[in-house]
């Protein structure tokens, strides 16, 4: 199988093998990882190593704390403003796609939202570049990779206010100066594990400035004080993240992963642009290295192409229901061989139908 799923998505084979072993007998303890207490050295080692690996792979400074929290990235849509924004204050948001729009909706429950730029005029097929963030804004929120529409920020936004980023679908896929971000969050199920856990990286100096009452379980400061163990953490999901982080390190870290991702994306987009039957939907300079979104010049052929993909064991190619067409997700764990098979099938299809 060649797995191009957008999320939950492909994991390295060895991660799946080790994770399944841990379900039966974790670290030769004779117990399943599902059966051990979270406040045991067995699990504390897992959490500590996962946090240390995130710090190492992202080269975080001492100001930045690493949390593993429950809930998907959707939980962070509200948890971020609850912790960072007072009712009478304003946060700047970029309306850049489905996920960013949802983040805006939640933030409005806790303060004022200034949508400083939107790509809605062109169905979110580009990244807005000319926008001005009011310096009085508490933070600027962006979605670094738009999973549904297939666009990605290729540089840090121009602003002096703290930047909050939803990196769910491109976390640890390219080398960035992660310390420039005040808050990064990512649901693990696209690039660093399975569903059920969020990675949250937070510059602690931005916390403690709101005056609302924050429920205990939603307060980042409580999670920091308790080392992600305020309550029972998602033990197995954190373990799968640990295995994925170890795999990223073994591959040579984020720099090397980035090179592989660039090679995969180049192969894919070069092929796409060379075939008249297919058409990319987003502005070329904003194309996502993670999710390639495209359609057909003749929509009547789309069914036939999907059938062809199915026959060749290319899985998860159908586009998001909002955008239609196709989406080929090329996350960290997808080998370039899968992209090669995909592009060969596309070329073959063109010969048949063009
Ligand atoms: C998948 C995704 C989400 C939603 O994640 P959940 O874990 O389902 O809440 C949010 N933002 C982005 C960019 C995503 O790709």
Tell me about this structure.
35% of the residues lie in helices and 17% in strands. The protein has helices spanning 13-24, 41-58, 73-84, 98-107, 220-225, 235-250, 253-274, 302-311, 336-353, and strands at 2-3, 64-69, 90-95, 112-118, 140-143, 145-146, 151-152, 163-166, 183-187, 198-203, 278-280, 291-296, 314-315, 326-329. Strand 3 (90-95), helix 4 and strand 4 form a beta-alpha-beta unit. Helix 7 packs parallel to helix 9 (336-353). Strands 2-10-9-8-5-3-4 form a seven-stranded mixed sheet, with helices on both faces. Strands 11-12-14 form a three-stranded antiparallel sheet, with helices on one face. The chain has two domains: 2-7 and 254-353, Alpha-Beta Complex (Aspartate Aminotransferase, domain 1); 13-250, Aspartate Aminotransferase, domain 2. The model has no long low-confidence stretch (mean pLDDT 97). With 354 residues, it is α/β, with parallel strands linked by helices. 45% of the residues are buried. It binds pyridoxal-5'-phosphate. Pyridoxal-5'-phosphate (PLP) binds at residues 7, 72-74, 99, 143, 147, 166, 168-169, 187, 190.
């Amino acid at each position: 199988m060649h797995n191009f799923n957008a999320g939950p998505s492909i994991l390295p084979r060895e991660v799946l093998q080790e994770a399944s072993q841990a379900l039966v007998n974790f670290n030769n303890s004779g117990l399943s990882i599902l059966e051990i207490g979270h406040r045991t050295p067995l699990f504390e080692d897992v959490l500590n190593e996962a946090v240390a690996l995130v710090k190492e792979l992202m080269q975080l400074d001492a100001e930045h704390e690493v949390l593993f929290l429950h809930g998907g990235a959707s939980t962070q849509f509200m948890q971020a403003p609850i912790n960072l924004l007072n009712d009478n204050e304003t946060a700047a948001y970029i309306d850049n796609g489905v996920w960013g729009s949802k983040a805006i909706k939640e933030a409005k429950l806790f303060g004022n939202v200034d949508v400083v730029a939107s790509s809605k005029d062109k169905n979110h097929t580009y990244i807005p570049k000319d926008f001005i963030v009011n310096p009085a804004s508490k933070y600027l929120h962006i979605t670094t990779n738009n999973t549904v529409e297939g666009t990605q920020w290729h540089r840090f936004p121009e602003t002096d206010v703290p930047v909050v980023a939803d990196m769910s679908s491109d976390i640890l896929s390219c080398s960035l100066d992660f310390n420039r971000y005040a808050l990064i969050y990512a649901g693990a199920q696209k690039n660093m594990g399975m569903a059920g856990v969020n990675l949250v990286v937070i510059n602690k100096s931005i916390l403690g400035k709101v005056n609302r009452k924050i429920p205990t379980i939603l307060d980042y400061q409580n999670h920091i004080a308790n080392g992600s163990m305020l309550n029972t953490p998602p033990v197995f999901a954190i373990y799968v993240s640990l295995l994925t982080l170890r795999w990223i390190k073994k591959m040579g870290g984020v720099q090397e992963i980035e090179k592989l991702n660039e090679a995969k994306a180049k192969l894919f987009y070069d092929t796409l642009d060379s075939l008249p039957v297919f058409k990319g939907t987003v502005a070329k300079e904003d194309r996502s290295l993670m999710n390639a979104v495209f359609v057909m010049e003749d929509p009547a052929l789309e069914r036939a192409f999907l059938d062809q993909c199915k026959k060749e064991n290319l899985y998860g190619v159908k586009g998001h229901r909002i955008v239609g067409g196709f989406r080929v997700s090329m996350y960290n764990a997808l080998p370039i061989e899968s992209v090669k098979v995909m592009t060969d099938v596309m070329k073959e299809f063109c010969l048949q139908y063009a």
